Amino acid sequence: MQSPKKSQLYTRTGDKGESSLYNGERRVKTDRIFEALGAVDELNSSIGIAHHYCKKSANGLEEQLIELIYGQNQIQCNLQDIGSNIATPRNDASESQLRNTLFDEGHIDKLEGWIDSLDSQLPPLRNFILPSGGESSIFLHQARSICRRAERTTIPVVEANDADESVLKYLNRLSDYLFAAARFAAKHEHLEENLYKKAKSGREATVQTRVL
């Protein structure tokens, strides 16, 4: 029996704890750039999970939240572009590499428009909200918390001029979008949001619920 052709999935070049950036530079995998890339990759996967649950909703969430679903598709593509930007140190790349990996600030404007649209359909916030509101909402909340970590790991990369500031702005705005999206999903599915209520002296904190 003929041996299968070697897969291109593995190269063995990273077996000693190093990997290559887009400009060809080799760095250890614990470098701040790879920390940020890993967090953004995890964020993208978490949005994929949230997207799946929004689409599988039995009450028409996919059809009635076209903007939300479309937005998630676009966001996943944008996160791939953010990864390319982070993997291309801005102070040590060719003009063509910089041009090919430039992250357009117009994506931030689009996010803000989606946030405005979703938030205008939600009741005002008067309490802290606990991750809740059904599967779609909970997974969007999880993506939001991962987004915050991706933002934190990207800060030192931007400060070192290894990535564009627009990347950081986008991640900051994306966490706001995911928060609004989580609340909107709960509202659409008529599921309860858990609200935090601070404990009074000598009493435990309690959780209140509210259907959006």
What does the model show?
The chain has 212 residues and is mainly alpha-helical. The chain has one domain (22-126, 133-191): Up-down Bundle (Hypothetical Protein Ta1238, Chain: A). It contains seven helices and five strands; from the N terminus they run ββαααααβααββ. The protein has helices spanning 32-56, 61-64, 66-86, 95-100, 106-119, 135-159, 165-188; strands at residues 18-20, 26-28, 129-130, 192-197, 206-211. The strands form two sheets. A three-stranded antiparallel β-sheet has the order 3-4-5. Strands 1-2 form a two-stranded antiparallel sheet. A hairpin with a 5-residue loop joins strand 1 (18-20) and strand 2. Helix 1 packs antiparallel against helix 6. The longest helix is centred in the N-terminal third of the chain and has 25 residues, at 32-56. The radius of gyration is 20 Å and the shape is globular. The protein starts with 17 loop residues before the first strand and ends with a strand.
Category from helices, strands and their pairing: mainly alpha
Q: Biggest β-sheet, characterized?
A: 3 strands, antiparallel
Q: What's the CATH H-level homologous superfamily?
A: Cobalamin adenosyltransferase-like
**Number of alpha- plus pi-helical segments:** 7
Order of strands, widest sheet: 3-4-5
